[in-house]
Design goal:
The protein is an alpha/beta fold. Helices cover 49% and strands 12% of the residues. The chain has a 6-stranded mixed β-sheet, with helices on one face. The longest helix is centred in the first third of the chain and has 35 residues, at 2-36. The radius of gyration is 19 Å and the shape is globular. The termini are far apart.
């Protein structure tokens, strides 16, 4: 009986270490972004009444606190909510527009591109994708019901002009079908990146692009465009350092 208990304790310690290590890395990233700005603009100039905004902000911060208090559980599903500030968003979409496969699709008038944010939180990445004007649909998947509700409320109150080009779904990221997606954005933590990489490799079509914030995907070859904590991966060239999936390459 003692041996299994000892093994469980050792496993728990290893998980705690990886969580602490990953949280520290993300916190450093957040601190860096906070030095550049204090808030993100979604609606391109429009804003809510200050009192309503303050109320939503307080509600939101409480929810974030609840999420961060349960890291062992959340690491099994994904990662806790952490905002991507506009400085990082500028970097993400600037790099994306320079990526060859995306630039080629954008130049082709008949191409209808789809953008997906896995773990979309308050929806800011999805709204920014819609503002870029290059995606027919920008979709956010979020498992937390409060964050999903918050994103939906912003869609109605702050960014109604993007109603037809945005969509938010409450869904576990592991159950999302990515086979027809052109661009995927992720902000995961190190403990889940191996598993997430396997899912992306199995499902993404040739020419798809992955944007990963802060954490790289183990075994994947990042694009030379990668910069400022944003890792850019293009399918299938990003798999040159690993075994190519049977489904996509027919090998």
């Amino acid at each position: 009986t003692k041996a299994p208990l000892l093994a469980m304790k050792n496993e728990t310690k290893e998980k705690e270490y990886s969580i602490s290590d990953g949280t520290e890395e993300i916190w450093k990233s957040v601190q860096s972004e906070l030095r550049d700005e204090a808030r993100s603009d979604v609606g391109g100039g429009s804003s809510l009444h200050p009192a309503f905004t303050l109320g939503l902000s307080g509600f939101f911060l409480l929810n974030v606190g609840a999420l961060l208090s349960l890291p062992p559980v959340l690491r099994g599903k994904g990662a806790p909510y952490l905002p991507t500030f506009s400085g990082k968003l500028d970097t993400m979409f600037s790099l994306l527009r320079r990526e060859a496969s995306v630039a080629k699709k954008v130049s082709a008038a008949n191409e209808a591109l789809t953008f997906v944010d896995l773990g979309s939180g308050d929806g800011r990445v999805v709204f920014r994708a819609a503002r870029e004007g290059i995606f027919q649909k920008s979709i956010g998947y979020e498992i937390n019901p409060l964050l999903h509700l918050y994103a939906q409320s912003r869609r109605v109150l702050q960014a109604p002009k993007y109603w037809s080009t945005t969509e938010f779904m409450r869904r576990d990221l592991w159950k999302v079908d990515l086979s027809e997606v052109d661009v995927v954005a992720v902000y995961g933590l190190h403990p889940i990146m191996d598993k997430l990489g396997a899912k992306l490799q199995e499902e993404l079509k040739p020419g798809a692009v992955v944007l990963s914030n802060v954490f790289s995907i183990p075994g994947w070859k990042q694009s030379p465009l990668s910069s400022k904590g944003v890792y850019v991966y293009t399918v299938p060239s990003c798999w040159e350092a690993s075994q190519s999936p049977t489904r996509r390459n027919g090998s």
